[in-house]
């Protein structure tokens, strides 16, 4: 059982430069606490993503940490030239001394993709071609590729990642149909949703992993993320989490509301109490949080929990206190139980 951190870097209540610095201080604390990886989302033209260039922020995080691995989750490959993405990936891997975990995807929001002038209907094709270019760059000294969207004719590859042949791959998976390919490529899986939804995906992943003749002990990371807030009293934890979740959800849903279209995010709701019932929020005293996490770990079949410990307008001091309680009173017990 491992623990990581997932971060949208959504807009907070302080100036952005201060938010960046406070987040970097939290990342230093994640490093000291023994978290496995810090995962940063990529979003554009929305307050949900105030770090729209993950490579820039992760480069700063790499210089402030020693053991914590860093990860874009995900690089939106449908929005950029794959050669440029490849070069950023290689630089990050060296700057972090081989601590990069590589999440890739085509982007969950057609609204954001459209703002970049990319036809959302073309995003899957652009993503698939970009992945093919990346894999060729990792394995060859030249790129020869001709597709509908990208073309390279003997393009030199002058930089390679520190981790060979490439950093570990991560993918967000919301459909069982995506699992066979992920198993074939031994990709680490991140899923979201209510416990029953997550369990269906983790069971399918293990089934496909076994059918492929792989050893159970070698299974990749199977993770999910949850909003987690801990305080000395339940009332304080709920009060803090309720306000921060409302701010986060407003950022999450803003573009969709503007466009008047439904938001496809696996059951997230603006109703705090309903979000708790659906398992997306875990807030309370250390003992209560530990019990809820134990239940979800067992029920969802995961081996990796990605914690959202800073979100919305939650003050830095609250996130730090929540982290301290989590590390002292929750993490060791959950690992032992798992």
Note down, in words, how this protein is organized:
The chain has 338 residues and is of the alpha/beta class. The chain has eleven helices and twelve strands. The protein has a single domain (2-73, 173-337), classed as Luciferase-like domain (TIM Barrel). It has helices at 16-33, 54-63, 82-95, 110-115, 123-139, 179-184, 195-211, 234-259, 272-277, 286-300, 316-337, and strands at residues 2-7, 37-40, 69-72, 75-76, 102-105, 142-146, 151-156, 169-172, 188-191, 222-230, 281-284, 304-308. The strands form two sheets. Strands 1, 2, 3, 4, 5, 8, 9, 10, 11 and 12 form a ten-stranded parallel beta sheet that branches. Strand 1, helix 1 and strand 2 form a beta-alpha-beta unit. Helix 2 (54-63) runs parallel beside helix 3 (82-95), helix 3 (82-95) packs across helix 5 and helix 10 crosses helix 11.
- General shape: globular
User: Mind telling me the C-alpha Rg?
Assistant: 20 Å
The SS-based structural class is alpha/beta
CATH classification class: Alpha Beta
Q: Share of helix among residues? A: 40-55%
Question: What is the string of SSEs from the N terminus onward?
Answer: EHEHEEHEHHEEEHEHEHHEHEH
Report the strand count.
Answer: 12
Describe the main β-sheet briefly.
10 strands, parallel
CATH architecture designation:
Alpha-Beta Barrel
What number is the mean pLDDT? 95
CATH topology-level fold name: TIM Barrel
Q: Approximately what portion of the residues adopt beta-strand conformation?
A: 15-25%
């Amino acid at each position: 059982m491992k623990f990581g951190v997932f971060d949208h870097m959504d807009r907070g209540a302080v100036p952005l430069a201060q938010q960046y610095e406070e987040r970097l201080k939290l990342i230093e604390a994640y490093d000291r606490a023994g978290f496995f990886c810090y995962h940063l989302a990529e979003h554009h033209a929305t307050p949900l993503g105030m770090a729209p260039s993950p490579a820039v922020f992760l480069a700063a995080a790499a210089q402030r940490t020693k053991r914590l691995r860093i990860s874009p989750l995900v690089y939106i490959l449908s929005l950029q030239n794959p050669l440029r993405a490849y070069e950023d990936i290689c630089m990050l891997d060296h700057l972090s001394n081989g601590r990069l975990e590589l999440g890739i995807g085509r982007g969950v929001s057609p609204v954001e993709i459209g703002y970049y002038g990319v036809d959302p209907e073309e995003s899957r094709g652009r993503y698939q071609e970009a992945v093919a270019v990346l894999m060729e760059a990792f394995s060859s000294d030249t790129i020869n590729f001709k597709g509908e969207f990208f073309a390279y004719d003997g393009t030199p590859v002058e930089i390679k990642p520190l981790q060979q042949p490439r950093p570990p791959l991560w993918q967000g998976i919301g459909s069982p149909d995506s699992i066979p390919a992920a198993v074939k490529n031994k990709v680490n899986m991140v899923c979201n949703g209510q416990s029953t939804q997550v369990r269906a995906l983790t069971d399918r992943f293990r089934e496909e992993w076994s059918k492929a003749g792989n050893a159970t002990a070698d299974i990749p990371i199977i993770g999910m993320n949850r909003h987690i807030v801990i305080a000395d009293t339940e009332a304080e934890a709920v009060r803090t989490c309720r306000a921060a979740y409302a701010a986060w959800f407003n950022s999450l849903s803003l573009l969709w509301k503007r466009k008047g279209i439904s938001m496809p995010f696996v059951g997230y709701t603006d109703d705090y109490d309903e979000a708790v019932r659906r398992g997306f929020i875990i807030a309370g005293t250390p003992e209560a949080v530990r019990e809820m996490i134990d239940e979800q770990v067992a029920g969802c079949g995961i081996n990796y929990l990605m914690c959202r410990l800073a979100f919305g307008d939650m003050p830095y001091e609250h996130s730090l206190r929540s982290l301290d309680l989590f590390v002292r009173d929750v993490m060791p017990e959950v690992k032992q139980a798992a």
